[in-house]
Amino acid sequence: MDAGTRLFRTALLGLAGNRAARKLSERYGMRLGASRFVAGETMEEALGHAKRLNDAGIAVTLDLLGESIQSLDEVKVCEIGYVDLLQAIDREQINGNVSLKPTQFGLALDAESCFESIRTVVREAERLGLFVRLDMEDSPWTDATIGIVRRLHGEGLKNVGTVIQAYLYRSVQDVKQLSAERINLRLVKGAYKEPGSIAFPAKKDVDSNMRRLIRARLESGEYTAIATHDESIIRWVKSYARSRRIPRTAFEFQMLYGIRTPLQESLAREGYTVRSYVPFGRSWYPYFVRRLAERPANVTFIVKSLFKR
Ligand code: FDA
């Protein structure tokens, strides 16, 4: 990554956490071009997209957007939202599960009530035979997020897993330990702004650590969700699995809604399990800005689409 791109990315990720910018953007609804990455503001819209993806042979993980909430009242709203979502997935027979963010459940406000609320959601999912994944946010929450998943597993709730980010130095150790504990993991490169003291600053090092984590996880024999749009990594996974006789049922590819859709469809046609991450809801702003920061060309796309209206 050159210095200009790095500066651009840092500036955008700074904006993701900016409350004034968030309020202003959300007021203008999806007109800023967010609808390319966000599957609507309501559950009904998201379920419609989920059904269309299922029809193309693609599973989904639905994410009711929200993070860094400000009051415990919002936690209850979020918990009810997720319970409703799980019941709708079951009712509508969607091939899917859910992803949630711990700070959306008040991790920064009250860790215990966050845990209890997430447990309510995981219990409801267990009752319905569904799975819940705790997304991984920025590094202040890494230990706490893993801690919540471990505690739930300790209570016998095995239908919950989390995410490990290849940009963090600690992740090799985390994958090793969590695989030994048989915790379901999604592996990603990492989407937040992290200091060089804890995360690889160079993209090439993140990419090679991603391969290292995937290899370690596949070798552990535990189910692996490989979440990337990086075609060279996807090609490498396919040939690595073939050469090591790792069955296709041992892993799945995950990609984000609206990104590399033809690739998602072609992998599904080839017989791989593919899952699309389908975010929806009114609090789409920080998610949207992280997608822009991943690829400068997205900003050009958004600016062009504004002028087309
Ligand atoms: P990379 O950034 O190298 O991109 C490879 C290629 O993919 C690019 O050249 C481009 O063509 C395409 N691409 C990538 N991003 C794009 C974008 N935004 N728009 C258009 N094209 C794009 N992160 C995290 O920290 N915690 C989490 O819990 C999750 N969860 C998660 C779930 C799923 C299903 C996915 C796919 C990703 C995440 N992420 C995440 C995000 C992840 O960490 C990472 O930021 C993005 O996936 C981008 O990295 P890639 O692996 O795609 O590679």
From TrEMBL:
Residues 47-302 form the Proline dehydrogenase domain. Keywords: FAD, Flavoprotein, Nucleotide-binding, Oxidoreductase, Proline metabolism. Pfam families: Pro_dh. Its EC number is 1.5.5.2. InterPro entries: FAD-linked_oxidoreductase-like, PRODH_bac_arc, Proline_DH_dom, Proline_oxidase. Transmembrane segments: none annotated. Its cofactor is FAD. The keyword Calcium does not apply. It catalyses: L-proline + a quinone = (S)-1-pyrroline-5-carboxylate + a quinol + H(+). Pathway: Amino-acid degradation; L-proline degradation into L-glutamate; L-glutamate from L-proline: step 1/2. This is proline dehydrogenase. It comes from Paenibacillus aurantiacus. The lineage of its organism: Bacteria, Bacillati, Bacillota, Bacilli, Bacillales.
